[in-house]
Fold:
Amino acid sequence: MFAYELFVGLRYTRAKRSNNFISFISFISMLGMALGIAVLITVTSVMNGFQKEVRDRILGVLAHIQISAIEGGLKDWPAVAAKAEENPAVRGSAPYVLAQGLLGNEQVVRGAIIRGILPEREGAVADFKSFLRAGSLDGLVPDSFAIVLGIELARALGVGVGDKVLLIAPQGQITPAGVIPRLKQFTVVGVFEAGHFEFDSGLALVHMADAQKLYRLGDAVSGVRLKIAEMLQAPRVAREIALTMNQDVMVADWSRLNSGWFRAVEIEKRMMFIILSLIVAVAAFNIVSTLVMVVTEKRADIAILRTLGATPASVMGIFVIQGALIGVFGTLLGVGGGILLASNVDVVVPFIERSFGMQFLAKDIYFISELPSEVRAADVTFVATVSLVLSFLATLYPSWRASRINPAQALRYE
Structure:
């Protein structure tokens, strides 16, 4: 019996001279659903890629876990690092000094975050060596007062490797003439490009000993940064490390340090999914109008089928199959087109930008200038499932109305 219902449903789906308009509406419903699904998969994949790309670039400069003193500086940082490394998930540690300063060159002054590092240990927690575009971290040695700048910061100051910049520390010296800020001339020994505008335009690296002298920290540091084997386990590992610490320290993982940004991206992703799902819903409910017109046109056929012994459930099944076929083909077309488009965003977007002379992502607004994409099977499966469920639900009412047609009334004027 199912084969019979499938056969009749397929016959009704195909175009005939008497129902070209209905077939056109069916095609538009199918196309609308496919377009909505393709856009939804593409946007979701781009949001996934954007989140992953920015996260990876942030963690290329920052660390998975950061340990800092609650008040003042961290004095016995080797002991803190050794204690943290007892956790089997920790792969490396490095101390740091973090402060603010002004960098000047001639008439140009820019604010920057000054980070004091130990070059020999920095590679264990960050990936600055792969970010370097000029110079080397090896130039950062104690008492050399050398500095490595982000590429946008170096461009704004108009300096390169070998040039001098003036670092102004906000902590001043008290003199008879008043408070005078501390000034020190640094030599640029490297330029890095992390691909994240916030760091490229506002981060400068110096040797930790030079930062301690300039900011009068003595032997203290701002904290210790840690790298772990699996970054997604950072919240759990941070809690474990915090329980083992003997000193009054604050342990924070990367998700807490950047919680505002990642929460905003997650909310935006959910809202975009809900908004774009409405496109799929509208296309799915177009099936209702299509089936209503088909049922109206096929009243006589339905009456004849009923007189030949077709049950109401069988009649209902015919139109459920017809509507479901529209949903299935639209879903398959949309999933295929969405995966194809999402997988080639890096080709399609530059082509559109060149064709219209525009840029979708400005680095100073969106942190990155390239549109990434990451297609996840779970997202594609969820979108396809929602689409199929909506298209099935859209067939129920018109199919039920078809099953309720009275054969005698339908054939009265035939």
